[in-house]
Amino acid sequence: MKAVLQRVTEARVVIAGETVGQIAQGLLVLVCAERGDGEMQTDKLLAKILKLRIFSDDAGKMNRSVQDLDGKGTIGGLLIVSQFTLAADASGGNRPSFTGAAPPDEGRRLYDFFVAQARTAHGLVETGQFGADMQVHLVNDGPVTISLQVL
């Protein structure tokens, strides 16, 4: 399972002109289930995301996790967006292949499981819509962008 995290001061997902998910300070999480992934990879990835210390402490050092932020009010949110293109393989030419991504039904199942687990573990979780044509608006804070993969 792969994810790209972006530390944001704000982010939102728009579908057909309507905002479907929105957070203030927190993490935009672009997530991709790959072939062979299961709940174990999902749980490992979520645990890593929630504990990753990429927010500044009072001394200005990256020493706080998203869980160390409020998470119950307007800050410390997760905006989780499915993105199968993280499984892109462009090694064979100029047109990427996405055969490494989980099949759509399995990808949806794992995405829904990931979101449900995140909502159980964290106070503020918003989402995009699996398989939709989405526009993601964000203000990357830092900028801080982290790529993660669990096997």
The largest β sheet comes out as: 6 strands, mixed
How many domain units?
Answer: 1
The best one-word shape is globular
Kindly provide the radius of gyration, computed on alpha-carbon positions and rounded to a whole number of angstroms.
15 Å
CATH architecture group name: 3-Layer(bba) Sandwich
Average pLDDT figure: 95
Order of helices and strands: EEEHEEEHEE
CATH superfamily: D-tyrosyl-tRNA(Tyr) deacylase
CATH topology category name: D-tyrosyl-trna(Tyr) Deacylase, Chain: A
CATH class: Alpha Beta
Which class of secondary structure composition applies to the elements? alpha/beta
User: How many extended strands?
Assistant: 8
Poorly predicted regions: none
Strand content range: 35-45%
Kindly report how far apart the N and C termini lie: 7 Å
Description:
21% of the residues lie in helices and 37% in strands. The model has no long low-confidence stretch (mean pLDDT 95). The N and C termini lie close together (7 Å). Strands 1, 2, 3, 6, 7 and 8 form a 6-stranded mixed β-sheet that branches. A two-stranded antiparallel ribbon has the order 4-5. The protein has one domain: D-tyrosyl-trna(Tyr) Deacylase, Chain: A (3-Layer(bba) Sandwich), CATH 3.50.80. The longest helix is centred in the last third of the chain and has 18 residues. It is built from 2 helices and 8 strands. α1 packs across α2. It is an alpha/beta fold and 151 residues long.
Question: Could you list some keywords that capture this structure?
Answer:
two-stranded antiparallel ribbon, globular, single chain, D-tyrosyl-trna(Tyr) Deacylase, Chain: A, 151 residues, alpha/beta
